[in-house]
Design brief:
By secondary structure, this protein is of the alpha+beta class. The chain has a domain of 191 residues: Cysteine proteinases (Cathepsin B, Chain A, Alpha-Beta Complex). It has 12 helices and 20 strands. The strands form 5 sheets. Strands 5, 8, 11, 14, 15, 16, 17, 18, 19 and 20 form a 10-stranded mixed beta sheet that branches. A hairpin with a 4-residue loop joins strand 15 and strand 16. Helix 3 runs antiparallel to helix 5. The N and C termini lie far apart (78 Å).
Length: 485
Protein backbone atom coordinates (compact mmCIF):
# COMPACT_ATOMS: atom_id res chain seq x y z
CA UNK A 1 0.00 0.00 0.00
CA UNK A 2 2.88 2.34 0.79
CA UNK A 3 4.47 1.63 -2.62
CA UNK A 4 1.18 2.30 -4.41
CA UNK A 5 0.75 5.63 -2.65
CA UNK A 6 4.37 6.49 -3.41
CA UNK A 7 3.88 5.70 -7.09
CA UNK A 8 0.73 7.84 -7.20
CA UNK A 9 2.66 10.66 -5.54
CA UNK A 10 5.38 10.46 -8.19
CA UNK A 11 2.77 10.40 -10.94
CA UNK A 12 1.00 13.42 -9.39
CA UNK A 13 4.25 15.31 -9.15
CA UNK A 14 5.10 14.60 -12.77
CA UNK A 15 1.61 15.66 -13.84
CA UNK A 16 1.89 18.87 -11.85
CA UNK A 17 5.27 19.58 -13.41
CA UNK A 18 3.88 18.94 -16.89
CA UNK A 19 0.90 21.20 -16.18
CA UNK A 20 3.19 23.95 -14.93
CA UNK A 21 5.39 23.59 -18.01
CA UNK A 22 2.42 23.73 -20.36
CA UNK A 23 1.16 26.85 -18.59
CA UNK A 24 4.56 28.51 -18.90
CA UNK A 25 4.85 27.61 -22.57
CA UNK A 26 1.25 27.96 -23.75
CA UNK A 27 -0.65 29.80 -21.06
CA UNK A 28 0.66 33.35 -21.60
CA UNK A 29 0.49 32.99 -25.38
CA UNK A 30 -3.12 31.84 -25.26
CA UNK A 31 -4.01 34.66 -22.89
CA UNK A 32 -2.14 37.16 -25.06
CA UNK A 33 -3.94 36.01 -28.20
CA UNK A 34 -7.26 36.27 -26.41
CA UNK A 35 -6.53 39.87 -25.39
CA UNK A 36 -5.13 40.89 -28.76
CA UNK A 37 -7.85 39.40 -30.95
CA UNK A 38 -9.63 42.30 -32.64
CA UNK A 39 -7.84 44.83 -30.45
CA UNK A 40 -4.79 47.09 -30.77
CA UNK A 41 -1.79 47.60 -28.47
CA UNK A 42 -2.15 50.03 -25.62
CA UNK A 43 0.41 52.66 -24.59
CA UNK A 44 2.31 52.88 -21.33
CA UNK A 45 1.56 55.95 -19.23
CA UNK A 46 4.95 57.48 -18.47
CA UNK A 47 3.46 59.97 -16.02
CA UNK A 48 0.69 62.29 -17.23
CA UNK A 49 1.26 61.18 -20.84
CA UNK A 50 -2.36 60.28 -21.56
CA UNK A 51 -2.51 63.35 -23.82
CA UNK A 52 0.17 61.82 -26.06
CA UNK A 53 -1.24 58.30 -25.91
CA UNK A 54 -4.74 59.42 -26.89
CA UNK A 55 -3.44 61.49 -29.81
CA UNK A 56 -1.28 58.66 -31.14
CA UNK A 57 -4.25 56.29 -31.06
CA UNK A 58 -6.32 58.84 -32.98
CA UNK A 59 -3.63 59.42 -35.62
CA UNK A 60 -3.08 55.67 -36.05
CA UNK A 61 -6.72 55.32 -37.14
CA UNK A 62 -6.12 57.60 -40.18
CA UNK A 63 -4.76 55.41 -43.02
CA UNK A 64 -4.08 58.39 -45.29
CA UNK A 65 -1.74 59.93 -42.73
CA UNK A 66 0.20 56.67 -42.30
CA UNK A 67 0.44 56.30 -46.07
CA UNK A 68 1.78 59.84 -46.36
CA UNK A 69 4.41 59.14 -43.69
CA UNK A 70 5.52 56.06 -45.60
CA UNK A 71 6.01 58.11 -48.76
CA UNK A 72 7.59 60.95 -46.79
CA UNK A 73 10.22 58.70 -45.19
CA UNK A 74 11.05 56.79 -48.39
CA UNK A 75 14.24 58.80 -48.94
CA UNK A 76 15.58 57.88 -45.49
CA UNK A 77 15.80 54.22 -46.44
CA UNK A 78 19.10 54.92 -48.22
CA UNK A 79 20.75 55.74 -44.89
CA UNK A 80 22.64 52.77 -43.51
CA UNK A 81 22.58 53.67 -39.82
CA UNK A 82 19.39 52.93 -37.95
CA UNK A 83 20.28 55.53 -35.31
CA UNK A 84 20.49 58.23 -37.98
CA UNK A 85 17.00 57.33 -39.18
CA UNK A 86 15.54 57.42 -35.67
CA UNK A 87 16.52 61.07 -35.27
CA UNK A 88 13.74 62.04 -37.69
CA UNK A 89 10.29 62.68 -36.26
CA UNK A 90 8.59 61.22 -39.33
CA UNK A 91 10.40 57.87 -38.96
CA UNK A 92 9.68 57.59 -35.23
CA UNK A 93 6.05 58.56 -35.70
CA UNK A 94 5.62 56.10 -38.56
CA UNK A 95 6.92 53.16 -36.50
CA UNK A 96 4.56 53.99 -33.63
CA UNK A 97 1.48 54.46 -35.82
CA UNK A 98 2.16 51.28 -37.79
CA UNK A 99 2.45 49.31 -34.56
CA UNK A 100 -0.75 50.84 -33.17
CA UNK A 101 -2.59 50.04 -36.40
CA UNK A 102 -1.29 46.44 -36.35
CA UNK A 103 0.71 46.94 -39.55
CA UNK A 104 3.89 45.88 -37.76
CA UNK A 105 4.13 42.62 -35.84
CA UNK A 106 4.78 43.22 -32.15
CA UNK A 107 4.65 40.77 -29.26
CA UNK A 108 3.87 43.45 -26.70
CA UNK A 109 0.34 44.38 -25.75
CA UNK A 110 1.59 47.67 -24.29
CA UNK A 111 4.01 49.91 -26.20
CA UNK A 112 6.37 52.60 -24.92
CA UNK A 113 6.11 55.93 -26.75
CA UNK A 114 8.93 57.68 -24.89
CA UNK A 115 10.93 57.68 -28.14
CA UNK A 116 8.52 60.31 -29.47
CA UNK A 117 9.25 62.65 -26.56
CA UNK A 118 12.97 62.15 -27.11
CA UNK A 119 12.87 63.04 -30.78
CA UNK A 120 10.68 66.07 -30.05
CA UNK A 121 13.36 67.29 -27.64
CA UNK A 122 15.80 67.10 -30.55
CA UNK A 123 13.38 69.39 -32.38
CA UNK A 124 13.66 71.78 -29.40
CA UNK A 125 10.27 70.94 -27.93
CA UNK A 126 10.53 70.53 -24.16
CA UNK A 127 7.44 68.53 -23.17
CA UNK A 128 7.42 67.52 -19.53
CA UNK A 129 5.66 64.30 -18.58
CA UNK A 130 5.18 65.56 -15.02
CA UNK A 131 2.81 68.37 -15.96
CA UNK A 132 -0.68 68.42 -17.45
CA UNK A 133 -0.52 68.80 -21.25
CA UNK A 134 -3.08 69.22 -24.02
CA UNK A 135 -3.62 66.75 -26.85
CA UNK A 136 -4.59 69.49 -29.31
CA UNK A 137 -1.40 71.44 -28.63
CA UNK A 138 0.65 68.28 -29.19
CA UNK A 139 -1.15 67.78 -32.51
CA UNK A 140 0.09 71.18 -33.71
CA UNK A 141 3.57 70.42 -32.38
CA UNK A 142 3.68 67.28 -34.53
CA UNK A 143 2.33 68.88 -37.71
CA UNK A 144 4.54 71.96 -37.44
CA UNK A 145 7.60 69.80 -36.72
CA UNK A 146 6.85 67.65 -39.78
CA UNK A 147 6.65 70.79 -41.88
CA UNK A 148 9.99 71.99 -40.47
CA UNK A 149 11.53 68.61 -41.25
CA UNK A 150 10.31 68.85 -44.82
CA UNK A 151 11.59 72.41 -45.23
CA UNK A 152 15.03 71.46 -43.91
CA UNK A 153 15.58 68.96 -46.70
CA UNK A 154 17.98 70.20 -49.42
CA UNK A 155 16.37 71.11 -52.70
CA UNK A 156 19.64 70.74 -54.61
CA UNK A 157 20.87 67.20 -55.10
CA UNK A 158 24.43 67.99 -56.22
CA UNK A 159 26.90 70.75 -55.42
CA UNK A 160 27.95 70.96 -59.07
CA UNK A 161 24.37 71.69 -60.11
CA UNK A 162 24.98 75.44 -60.43
CA UNK A 163 21.71 75.97 -62.29
CA UNK A 164 19.76 74.61 -59.34
CA UNK A 165 21.78 76.64 -56.87
CA UNK A 166 20.86 79.84 -58.67
CA UNK A 167 17.13 79.07 -58.64
CA UNK A 168 15.49 78.56 -55.22
CA UNK A 169 12.31 77.11 -56.71
CA UNK A 170 12.90 74.55 -59.40
CA UNK A 171 10.95 71.68 -60.82
CA UNK A 172 12.29 68.29 -61.72
CA UNK A 173 12.16 69.04 -65.45
CA UNK A 174 14.35 72.13 -65.00
CA UNK A 175 17.15 70.26 -63.27
CA UNK A 176 20.29 70.03 -65.39
CA UNK A 177 23.84 69.12 -64.58
CA UNK A 178 26.95 70.77 -65.96
CA UNK A 179 28.97 67.70 -65.18
CA UNK A 180 29.09 64.49 -67.14
CA UNK A 181 25.90 62.49 -66.80
CA UNK A 182 22.49 63.32 -65.38
CA UNK A 183 21.44 63.94 -61.82
CA UNK A 184 19.19 61.55 -59.93
CA UNK A 185 15.57 62.65 -59.95
CA UNK A 186 14.48 64.97 -57.17
CA UNK A 187 12.02 63.34 -54.79
CA UNK A 188 8.70 65.11 -54.69
CA UNK A 189 7.92 63.84 -51.16
CA UNK A 190 9.48 66.88 -49.54
CA UNK A 191 7.18 69.22 -51.42
CA UNK A 192 3.96 67.40 -50.55
CA UNK A 193 1.78 68.65 -47.71
CA UNK A 194 0.58 66.33 -45.00
CA UNK A 195 -3.07 65.15 -45.25
CA UNK A 196 -4.23 67.48 -42.45
CA UNK A 197 -3.14 70.58 -44.36
CA UNK A 198 -6.00 72.84 -45.50
CA UNK A 199 -6.62 76.47 -46.42
CA UNK A 200 -9.05 79.05 -45.10
CA UNK A 201 -10.38 81.93 -47.17
CA UNK A 202 -11.15 85.34 -45.74
CA UNK A 203 -13.70 87.30 -47.77
CA UNK A 204 -14.27 91.06 -47.20
CA UNK A 205 -17.16 92.93 -48.87
CA UNK A 206 -18.02 96.61 -48.47
CA UNK A 207 -21.64 97.09 -47.39
CA UNK A 208 -21.82 100.50 -49.08
CA UNK A 209 -20.51 99.82 -52.60
CA UNK A 210 -20.48 95.97 -52.46
CA UNK A 211 -16.87 95.96 -53.58
CA UNK A 212 -15.06 92.75 -52.69
CA UNK A 213 -11.47 92.92 -51.50
CA UNK A 214 -8.95 90.30 -52.67
CA UNK A 215 -9.51 86.97 -50.98
CA UNK A 216 -6.89 86.08 -48.39
CA UNK A 217 -5.74 82.51 -47.83
CA UNK A 218 -4.48 81.11 -44.54
CA UNK A 219 -3.36 77.57 -43.81
CA UNK A 220 -4.77 75.35 -41.06
CA UNK A 221 -4.04 71.91 -39.66
CA UNK A 222 -7.21 71.65 -37.59
CA UNK A 223 -10.48 73.52 -37.36
CA UNK A 224 -10.79 74.97 -33.87
CA UNK A 225 -14.51 75.55 -33.34
CA UNK A 226 -16.04 77.48 -30.49
CA UNK A 227 -19.28 76.17 -29.01
CA UNK A 228 -22.11 78.73 -29.37
CA UNK A 229 -24.34 79.64 -26.48
CA UNK A 230 -26.85 76.89 -25.84
CA UNK A 231 -30.54 77.48 -26.51
CA UNK A 232 -32.93 75.85 -24.08
CA UNK A 233 -34.65 72.84 -25.59
CA UNK A 234 -32.36 72.81 -28.63
CA UNK A 235 -29.53 70.26 -28.83
CA UNK A 236 -26.10 71.53 -29.79
CA UNK A 237 -24.79 69.98 -33.01
CA UNK A 238 -21.56 70.03 -34.96
CA UNK A 239 -23.38 71.96 -37.70
CA UNK A 240 -24.11 74.76 -35.24
CA UNK A 241 -20.40 75.02 -34.42
CA UNK A 242 -19.41 75.00 -38.10
CA UNK A 243 -21.97 77.66 -39.04
CA UNK A 244 -20.84 79.76 -36.10
CA UNK A 245 -17.25 79.42 -37.34
CA UNK A 246 -18.03 80.74 -40.84
CA UNK A 247 -20.76 83.18 -39.82
CA UNK A 248 -20.21 86.68 -41.19
CA UNK A 249 -19.21 89.55 -38.93
CA UNK A 250 -19.33 93.31 -39.46
CA UNK A 251 -16.13 95.31 -39.19
CA UNK A 252 -16.63 99.05 -38.85
CA UNK A 253 -14.42 101.97 -39.78
CA UNK A 254 -12.49 100.24 -42.58
CA UNK A 255 -10.98 102.25 -45.45
CA UNK A 256 -12.66 101.29 -48.75
CA UNK A 257 -10.49 102.08 -51.76
CA UNK A 258 -13.43 101.74 -54.12
CA UNK A 259 -15.61 104.18 -52.18
CA UNK A 260 -12.66 106.60 -52.05
CA UNK A 261 -12.20 106.27 -55.81
CA UNK A 262 -15.88 106.93 -56.46
CA UNK A 263 -15.77 109.95 -54.19
CA UNK A 264 -12.67 111.28 -56.01
CA UNK A 265 -14.33 110.99 -59.41
CA UNK A 266 -17.23 113.14 -58.25
CA UNK A 267 -15.14 116.00 -56.88
CA UNK A 268 -13.62 118.92 -58.74
CA UNK A 269 -10.02 118.74 -59.88
CA UNK A 270 -7.51 119.80 -57.31
CA UNK A 271 -9.71 119.16 -54.29
CA UNK A 272 -8.28 116.79 -51.71
CA UNK A 273 -10.50 114.09 -50.30
CA UNK A 274 -10.19 111.88 -47.27
CA UNK A 275 -10.21 108.11 -47.33
CA UNK A 276 -13.74 106.84 -47.17
CA UNK A 277 -14.34 104.57 -44.20
CA UNK A 278 -17.26 102.17 -44.31
CA UNK A 279 -18.42 98.91 -42.76
CA UNK A 280 -17.18 95.64 -44.24
CA UNK A 281 -18.67 92.17 -43.92
CA UNK A 282 -16.06 89.50 -43.27
CA UNK A 283 -16.60 85.77 -43.63
CA UNK A 284 -14.37 82.73 -43.35
CA UNK A 285 -14.76 79.75 -45.65
CA UNK A 286 -12.81 76.61 -46.40
CA UNK A 287 -10.78 77.19 -49.55
CA UNK A 288 -9.09 73.79 -49.51
CA UNK A 289 -10.47 70.85 -47.55
CA UNK A 290 -7.86 68.33 -46.39
CA UNK A 291 -7.91 64.59 -46.84
CA UNK A 292 -7.78 64.13 -43.06
CA UNK A 293 -9.91 66.60 -41.12
CA UNK A 294 -9.17 67.30 -37.46
CA UNK A 295 -11.88 69.24 -35.62
CA UNK A 296 -11.12 70.74 -32.22
CA UNK A 297 -14.07 71.71 -30.03
CA UNK A 298 -13.03 74.57 -27.76
CA UNK A 299 -14.23 73.61 -24.29
CA UNK A 300 -12.32 76.37 -22.52
CA UNK A 301 -14.38 79.33 -21.34
CA UNK A 302 -13.83 82.13 -18.86
CA UNK A 303 -15.98 83.23 -15.95
CA UNK A 304 -16.76 86.83 -15.08
CA UNK A 305 -13.97 86.68 -12.52
CA UNK A 306 -11.46 85.61 -15.17
CA UNK A 307 -11.06 82.00 -14.05
CA UNK A 308 -10.93 79.22 -16.68
CA UNK A 309 -13.94 76.93 -16.92
CA UNK A 310 -14.64 73.83 -18.95
CA UNK A 311 -17.79 73.45 -21.02
CA UNK A 312 -19.19 69.97 -20.52
CA UNK A 313 -22.22 70.10 -22.82
CA UNK A 314 -22.60 67.39 -25.42
CA UNK A 315 -22.13 68.37 -29.06
CA UNK A 316 -23.93 65.96 -31.37
CA UNK A 317 -21.89 64.60 -34.27
CA UNK A 318 -22.42 61.85 -36.81
CA UNK A 319 -20.40 59.03 -38.25
CA UNK A 320 -20.46 60.85 -41.60
CA UNK A 321 -19.84 64.54 -42.13
CA UNK A 322 -20.81 66.63 -45.17
CA UNK A 323 -18.71 69.76 -45.71
CA UNK A 324 -20.02 71.00 -49.06
CA UNK A 325 -21.81 74.09 -47.76
CA UNK A 326 -18.68 75.27 -45.95
CA UNK A 327 -16.48 75.14 -49.06
CA UNK A 328 -15.52 78.45 -50.67
CA UNK A 329 -16.55 78.91 -54.30
CA UNK A 330 -15.34 81.70 -56.53
CA UNK A 331 -18.10 84.18 -57.39
CA UNK A 332 -19.32 83.79 -60.95
CA UNK A 333 -21.25 86.11 -63.20
CA UNK A 334 -24.30 84.96 -65.10
CA UNK A 335 -22.27 84.69 -68.30
CA UNK A 336 -20.02 82.15 -66.62
CA UNK A 337 -22.84 79.87 -65.50
CA UNK A 338 -22.53 77.74 -68.63
CA UNK A 339 -18.85 77.21 -67.91
CA UNK A 340 -19.71 76.11 -64.39
CA UNK A 341 -22.09 73.46 -65.68
CA UNK A 342 -19.26 71.97 -67.73
CA UNK A 343 -16.89 71.68 -64.79
CA UNK A 344 -16.32 68.60 -62.67
CA UNK A 345 -18.25 68.04 -59.43
CA UNK A 346 -15.07 68.88 -57.51
CA UNK A 347 -15.30 72.50 -58.70
CA UNK A 348 -19.03 72.87 -58.25
CA UNK A 349 -19.85 73.22 -54.59
CA UNK A 350 -23.52 73.21 -53.60
CA UNK A 351 -24.70 75.30 -50.73
CA UNK A 352 -22.72 78.43 -51.63
CA UNK A 353 -23.64 81.65 -53.36
CA UNK A 354 -20.94 84.02 -54.56
CA UNK A 355 -18.44 82.49 -52.18
CA UNK A 356 -20.72 82.87 -49.14
CA UNK A 357 -22.24 79.94 -47.32
CA UNK A 358 -25.97 79.53 -47.55
CA UNK A 359 -27.62 77.58 -44.79
CA UNK A 360 -30.06 75.08 -46.27
CA UNK A 361 -33.61 76.00 -45.41
CA UNK A 362 -36.53 73.68 -45.04
CA UNK A 363 -38.13 75.32 -48.07
CA UNK A 364 -35.36 73.94 -50.26
CA UNK A 365 -36.20 70.39 -49.30
CA UNK A 366 -38.85 68.40 -51.15
CA UNK A 367 -42.17 68.19 -49.39
CA UNK A 368 -42.53 65.30 -47.01
CA UNK A 369 -38.77 64.74 -46.65
CA UNK A 370 -36.30 65.83 -44.02
CA UNK A 371 -32.59 66.40 -44.48
CA UNK A 372 -31.26 63.17 -43.02
CA UNK A 373 -27.64 64.17 -43.55
CA UNK A 374 -27.50 67.14 -41.19
CA UNK A 375 -24.17 66.93 -39.40
CA UNK A 376 -24.90 65.92 -35.86
CA UNK A 377 -28.61 66.68 -36.09
CA UNK A 378 -29.69 63.09 -36.41
CA UNK A 379 -28.61 59.59 -35.63
CA UNK A 380 -26.57 57.53 -38.04
CA UNK A 381 -28.94 54.59 -37.65
CA UNK A 382 -29.90 54.74 -41.31
CA UNK A 383 -26.30 54.00 -42.27
CA UNK A 384 -25.75 50.31 -42.80
CA UNK A 385 -22.95 48.46 -41.06
CA UNK A 386 -21.54 47.36 -44.42
CA UNK A 387 -20.63 50.95 -45.24
CA UNK A 388 -23.50 51.57 -47.63
CA UNK A 389 -26.52 53.79 -47.38
CA UNK A 390 -29.59 54.35 -49.54
CA UNK A 391 -29.82 57.20 -52.01
CA UNK A 392 -32.79 58.47 -50.01
CA UNK A 393 -30.25 59.82 -47.53
CA UNK A 394 -29.85 62.73 -49.94
CA UNK A 395 -33.23 64.43 -50.31
CA UNK A 396 -32.07 66.52 -53.25
CA UNK A 397 -30.79 63.39 -55.04
CA UNK A 398 -27.35 64.92 -55.37
CA UNK A 399 -24.33 63.22 -53.87
CA UNK A 400 -22.09 65.32 -51.64
CA UNK A 401 -18.60 66.02 -52.95
CA UNK A 402 -16.88 66.61 -49.61
CA UNK A 403 -17.97 63.66 -47.51
CA UNK A 404 -16.00 62.51 -44.46
CA UNK A 405 -16.10 59.38 -42.30
CA UNK A 406 -15.41 59.46 -38.57
CA UNK A 407 -12.22 57.59 -37.66
CA UNK A 408 -11.45 58.56 -34.04
CA UNK A 409 -12.68 60.69 -31.14
CA UNK A 410 -10.51 62.02 -28.30
CA UNK A 411 -12.41 62.74 -25.08
CA UNK A 412 -11.19 64.68 -22.03
CA UNK A 413 -12.56 63.79 -18.60
CA UNK A 414 -12.09 66.24 -15.74
CA UNK A 415 -11.78 70.00 -15.42
CA UNK A 416 -9.37 72.63 -16.76
CA UNK A 417 -6.75 71.91 -14.09
CA UNK A 418 -6.58 68.14 -14.19
CA UNK A 419 -8.16 65.30 -16.09
CA UNK A 420 -7.60 62.30 -18.31
CA UNK A 421 -7.66 61.76 -22.10
CA UNK A 422 -9.19 58.64 -23.68
CA UNK A 423 -9.75 57.71 -27.31
CA UNK A 424 -12.46 56.03 -29.32
CA UNK A 425 -11.07 54.70 -32.58
CA UNK A 426 -11.91 52.21 -35.29
CA UNK A 427 -10.36 48.80 -35.12
CA UNK A 428 -7.77 48.40 -37.90
CA UNK A 429 -8.79 46.30 -40.92
CA UNK A 430 -7.60 42.76 -41.40
CA UNK A 431 -4.33 42.22 -43.32
CA UNK A 432 -6.29 40.37 -46.00
CA UNK A 433 -8.24 43.54 -46.85
CA UNK A 434 -6.14 46.52 -45.72
CA UNK A 435 -8.15 49.09 -47.72
CA UNK A 436 -11.41 48.27 -45.97
CA UNK A 437 -12.86 50.23 -43.04
CA UNK A 438 -14.18 48.23 -40.12
CA UNK A 439 -17.32 49.06 -38.17
CA UNK A 440 -15.84 47.86 -34.86
CA UNK A 441 -14.94 50.62 -32.42
CA UNK A 442 -12.46 50.50 -29.55
CA UNK A 443 -12.20 52.43 -26.27
CA UNK A 444 -8.60 53.04 -25.23
CA UNK A 445 -7.30 54.52 -22.01
CA UNK A 446 -3.48 54.28 -22.02
CA UNK A 447 -2.80 50.52 -21.72
CA UNK A 448 -6.48 49.49 -21.35
CA UNK A 449 -8.26 48.51 -24.57
CA UNK A 450 -11.82 47.24 -24.96
CA UNK A 451 -14.48 47.11 -27.63
CA UNK A 452 -17.13 49.83 -27.86
CA UNK A 453 -20.29 50.45 -29.84
CA UNK A 454 -20.95 53.27 -32.29
CA UNK A 455 -23.74 54.53 -30.04
CA UNK A 456 -21.25 54.90 -27.18
CA UNK A 457 -18.89 56.81 -29.47
CA UNK A 458 -21.56 59.23 -30.69
CA UNK A 459 -22.71 59.81 -27.09
CA UNK A 460 -19.28 60.94 -25.91
CA UNK A 461 -18.30 64.55 -25.19
CA UNK A 462 -15.81 64.96 -28.01
CA UNK A 463 -12.73 67.13 -27.69
CA UNK A 464 -10.98 66.14 -30.93
CA UNK A 465 -12.69 64.58 -33.96
CA UNK A 466 -10.70 62.84 -36.68
CA UNK A 467 -12.43 62.42 -40.05
CA UNK A 468 -11.16 61.04 -43.35
CA UNK A 469 -12.56 62.03 -46.70
CA UNK A 470 -14.29 59.30 -48.70
CA UNK A 471 -15.55 59.06 -52.24
CA UNK A 472 -19.02 58.05 -53.36
CA UNK A 473 -18.98 55.29 -55.92
CA UNK A 474 -21.67 53.14 -57.43
CA UNK A 475 -25.07 53.49 -59.00
CA UNK A 476 -28.52 51.97 -58.70
CA UNK A 477 -29.98 51.63 -55.20
CA UNK A 478 -26.96 52.22 -52.97
CA UNK A 479 -23.59 53.88 -53.01
CA UNK A 480 -20.50 52.37 -51.50
CA UNK A 481 -18.19 54.47 -49.36
CA UNK A 482 -14.53 53.92 -49.97
CA UNK A 483 -11.53 55.75 -48.64
CA UNK A 484 -9.94 58.08 -51.15
CA UNK A 485 -6.67 56.69 -52.43
Amino acid sequence: RYKVMKNWGVIGGVAAALAAGMYVLWGPITERRRRRRGLVPGLLNLGNTCFMNSLLQGLSSCPSFIKWLQEFTAQYKAEQSQSSQDQYLSVTLLHLLRALSCQEVTEDDVLDASCLLEVLRMYRWQISSFEEQDAHELFHVLTSSLEDERDRQPRVTHLFDVHSLEQPEITQKQISCRTKGSLPPVSSHWKSQHPFHGRLTSNMVCKHCEHQSPVRYDTFDSLSLSIPAAVWGRPMTLDHCLHHFISSESIKDVVCDNCTKIQAEGTLNGQSIENQRTTFVKQLKLGKLPQCLCIHLQRLSWSNQGTPLKRHEHVQFNEFLVMDIYKYRLPLHKSSQNELNQKSPEEKTPGTKDGIAVKPSDAEQPSGTKPLFRNGACSSSFLMSSGTFPLAAFPECSSPVYLYRLMAVVVHHGDMHSGHFVTYRRSPPSPKNPLSVTSQWLWISDDTVRKASLQEVLSSSAYLLFYERVRLRGQHQSLELRSEE
